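Fig. S4 source data, part A: sequence.
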Amino acid sequence: MMYGRSPILPFDHQDTNVTLSYDTEHVKKLNQFLSNLDKQAKCNIIKHQEQYKQHYNRNRSNPVYNIGDLVLVKTLNIRYKFDLRYEGPFKIIKTNYGKNIYHSTC
């Protein structure tokens, strides 16, 4: 079919006389090199995560609310452009380990 020759197809039986050498020392060096690259990559990831954390937390402040303060609460599931983004004002009536309990003043 192919200009008088029969084609060699991928599923045809291959010659078994071809062998590859297996150098154990080269394999050990390659495994050691790859493990060192893996350790170095993990260290770089941790270092950059710390840098991102410091950069993000640079201007972050944790607000402290006292009982009697008036606050606005962010509205979840805003669907339209002109929906209200915040509800309130609400008066804080109780604080509970960083979680605040609100009471409507409207």
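Fig. S4 source data, part B ends here. The first helix runs from residue 24 to 57.
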